[in-house]
Automatic annotation (TrEMBL):
Domain NADH:quinone oxidoreductase/Mrp antiporter transmembrane, first and last residues per copy: 127-422
Keyword DNA repair: no
Keyword Glycoprotein attributed: no
Name of protein: NADH-quinone oxidoreductase subunit J
Short name of any one Pfam family annotated for the protein: Proton_antipo_M
Topology of the protein relative to the lipid bilayer: Multi-pass membrane protein
Keywords, in A-Z order: Cell membrane, Membrane, Transmembrane, Transmembrane helix
Family: Belongs to the CPA3 antiporters (TC 2.A.63) subunit D family.
PANTHER family: NA(+)_H(+) ANTIPORTER SUBUNIT D1, NADH DEHYDROGENASE
UniProt record, GO biological process: ATP synthesis coupled electron transport
Location in the cell: Cell membrane; Membrane
Record-level Gene Ontology MF annotations: NADH dehydrogenase (ubiquinone) activity
Length: 497
């Protein structure tokens, strides 16, 4: 057993005490240090998974399931843990940077919620039973919703309330599915459930439970058509909050959706349900991509882009569930890499958008001419992060989309290939629209025009670092990653090198 898994969940909570006991500046710096420690712990988990070639596990209280609760880290979990830890750490640094060393840019409540998010995310990536996963999702929701209305503005409160209603709706659906599963099998442990489902065909009740849980997770992840809460929530929050909401918070329900359909559902059922998920993903890419193109506010454009980009993960389901092992593994790797690269690029773009708006006094696209001169590093971070969304080389988004595209073509899934290409064109259109406007000559100064402010170099550098992290993923080999197969279900054995 590995105690690192317990530390990953509990250490972020240790940073809460200094926030309540010390001055805001000192408490915030200690909170960021704790996020750095969490980054080291998740890195150690990934190293151990690679070194042993096996999943790590921990039984709480020493009792294995079904009596106890298990934590487990396989290659997929380790990748998500490292990604979220890095994004949270850099966002925390962004929030304290530029405060003149006296006070952080964000209130103490932000750092409190950031630590709570870290703990809830790690629990969601490690928990192995459906009820503990429900608890993790609830903790995540109640830490994320206050981030939306951190400044207390009327629009933020309205967006936060809408987000809360959608999240609670998703929780009810997910919990109904959990109750049905427990009534059928008497256990909620994923490994035990998968073993029992492999012995007999799934009943109609189990299929209904899986559909309810999937719909609940779709609502929490803002997957089309349940995405309506995301644009106002993510665009109205402060930039640092928007970055973590868009980069990592919505990844937890998507991660669980993958768990349900790849680890729990028997292969024939996964093959039957995957086209439905892919259809929702395709609609998200096309519909939300077109809506993003029509926006006149920079942060709203990025928020609709998030709703579109999560559709790519759903395109992975039918490709990964197909019988062709080689191309299925390529699709699985492409989908996972898309989750990670999207997190880095979207965090970079939201932070950059906040800095551009701060420098220009607004985020209306029609008035951003000259932003490239006023905030050059921020505009560069936005454009470099956008490379990954467009799927241009070198970037993680390019590698991920090429993997999905290759798998789709070799499996004769031409409609998926066309959606990937169309989504890339739409992303290119709305990213280049912003960059072209920002690089234009500034409008002459006139009455009523807010004079540009200076760009904060430290915070722009952090946004640029996140953008380069998304680019660096583009130098990974264009092949299935053996790391992601570690600890995966037995059905994956032999599919990867």
């Amino acid at each position: 057993m590995s105690a690192l898994l317990v530390l990953a969940v509990t250490v972020p909570l240790l940073g809460l005490a200094p926030l309540f006991l010390l001055r805001p500046g000192a408490g915030a710096r200690i909170a960021v240090a704790v996020l750095g420690l969490g980054c080291a712990i998740t890195g150690a988990i990934a190293v151990q998974v690679v070194r042993t070639g096996q999943a790590l596990h921990y039984f709480v209280g020493g009792f294995p399931p079904p009596l106890g609760v298990a934590l487990r880290a396989d290659g997929f979990s380790a990748a998500m843990l490292c990604m979220s830890a890095m994004v949270l750490l850099l966002t925390g640094l962004f929030a304290i940077a530029g405060g003149g060393g006296k006070a952080p840019r964000m209130p103490a409540a932000f750092f409190t919620l950031l630590l709570a998010l870290s703990s809830a995310l790690n629990l969601a990536f490690l928990a192995q039973d459906l009820f503990t996963l429900y608890v993790a999702l609830e903790l995540l929701t109640f830490a994320a919703v206050p981030l939306v209305c951190l400044e207390g503005k009327a629009g933020q409160l309205s967006a936060a309330l809408t987000y809360l209603l959608f999240a609670l709706f998703g929780s009810v659906l997910y919990l109904l599915g959990v109750v049905l599963v427990y009534g059928l099998f008497g256990t909620l442990d994923l490994a035990l459930l998968a073993r029992r489902l492999a012995q007999a065909p799934p009943s109609g009740t189990f299929i209904a439970a899986l559909a309810l849980m999937s719909a609940g997770l779709m609502a929490k992840a803002a997957l089309f058509p349940l995405h309506l809460w995301l644009p106002p929530a993510h665009s109205g929050a402060p930039p640092a909050a928007s970055a973590v909401l868009s980069a990592v918070v919505i990844k937890a329900p998507l991660f669980l959706l993958v768990r349900l359909w790849s680890d729990l559902a028997p292969l024939p059922l996964a093959q039957a349900g995957a086209p439905v998920l892919a259809a929702f993903g395709a609609l998200a890419i096309l519909f939300c991509g077109v809506v993003a193109l029509a926006q006149d506010r920079l942060k709203l454009l990025i928020a609709y882009s998030t709703a579109a980009q999560i559709g790519y993960l759903c395109l992975m389901f039918p490709l990964a569930a197909a019988a062709d092992g080689q191309w299925s593994a390529l699709a699985w790797t492409g989908g996972t890499l898309h989750l990670v690269s999207h997190a880095f690029s979207k965090a970079a773009m939201f932070l950059a958008a906040g800095l551009i708006a701060e420098a220009m006094g607004h985020d209306r696209l029609s008035g951003l001419a000259g932003a490239g001169r006023v905030a050059p590093v921020s505009v560069a971070a936005f454009g470099i992060g956008g490379l990954s969304l467009m799927g241009l080389p070198p970037s993680g988004g390019f590698i991920a989309k090429v993997m999905l595209l290759t798998s789709a073509i070799h499996q004769d899934a031409w409609w998926i290939a066309l959606v990937i290409l169309a989504g890339g064109l739409l992303a290119g259109a709305y990213v280049l629209r912003v960059v072209v406007i920002a690089l234009q000559r500034p409008e002459p100064a006139g009455a009523g025009r807010v004079p540009p402010a200076r760009e904060c170099g430290a915070r722009a550098g952090i946004a640029l670092a996140l953008a380069f992290a998304a680019v660096l993923l583009g130098f990974l080999p264009l092949a299935p990653f053996a790391f992601l197969s570690i600890g995966r279900p037995l059905s994956w054995t032999g599919l990867l090198p």
